Amino acid sequence: MDKSNVETLRQKAHEALDKFLKPYRESDSGGGWAPFTAEDETNFWEFMWALIGAKFEPDSDGDYPLNFKLTNRTYQEPMSFVNLPYSHKCNTLAQKLEYIRTAQINLSIANDFLKYGIDSLREDNYAKSK
User: Fold this and answer.
1) Does one domain contain both 68 and 99?
2) Whether residue 60 sits in one domain with residue 25
3) 93 and 113 share one domain
4) Which of 16, 53, 78, 122 could form a disulfide with 47 if both were Cys (CB 3.0 to 4.6 A apart)?
5) Range of 111's domain?
6) Do the beta carbons of residue 50 and residue 16 sit within 8 Å?
7) Total domains present in the chain
8) Are 90 and 74 within one domain?
9) Are residues 75 and 91 both part of a single domain?
10) With 0-12 CB in 10 A as exposed, 13-18 as middle and 19+ as buried, what is 47?
C-alpha cells in the first residue's frame, strides 16, 4: 500500500475518533453509567475498524490480524469468556492441555449463565402457580 493511502486511512481514524468522542457524556448523579446510545455504539465500531485499518493491511480475504468485541454494559453481561488459542497452533502437550483447560473454563462460564436463566424461568413459573 502506498504512503498516501496509509495517511488517508490514518486521517479517517482520527476523524472517526473525534466523531465518537463528541459529545462527552457524564454519569448520572446517582452513580449510574453515562448514557451510551446506539449512535455511540455505531461510532465506536467505526472508530475501531478505522483504527485497525490504519495500522494493518488486510490479508487477501479482507481479514485483519485482530478482532475485538464490544460489550455494552447498559444491557449486556460483562464479557464472560476467555480467549481460546488456535487448536492447530498447539504443538506441545502443555499447550494442548492449556487449550482444553481454557475451553473447559468457557464451558463452565456458559453453564453458569444457562443455570441462571433456567432458575429465573423456574422462579417465574413458581410465582405464577401461586
Assistant:
1) no
2) yes
3) yes
4) 16
5) 80-130
6) yes
7) 2
8) no
9) no
10) buried
Residues contacting residue 9 through CB under 8 Å, at least 6 positions apart = 50, 53, 54
How many C-beta atoms surround the C-beta of residue 51 within 10 A? 18
Q: Compute the distance between CA of residue 36 and CA of residue 71 in angstroms, rounded to an integer.
A: 11
The one-letter amino acid at 53? G
Per-residue pLDDT reduced to its tens digit, 49-96: 999 999 999 999 999 999 888 888 888 888 888 899 999 999 999 999
Cα–Cα distances in angstroms (integers) from residue 83 to residues 61, 76, 88, in the given order? 23, 18, 15
pTM, to two decimals: 0.71
Write out the DSSP string of 31-83.
S-PPP--HHHHHHHHHHHHHHHHHH----TTS--S-------TTTSPPP----
Q: What is the pLDDT of residues 11-30, one digit of tens each?
A: 999 999 999 999 999 998 88
| Residue with the three cell numbers 478505522 | 50
**Same-domain pairing of 30 and 59:** yes
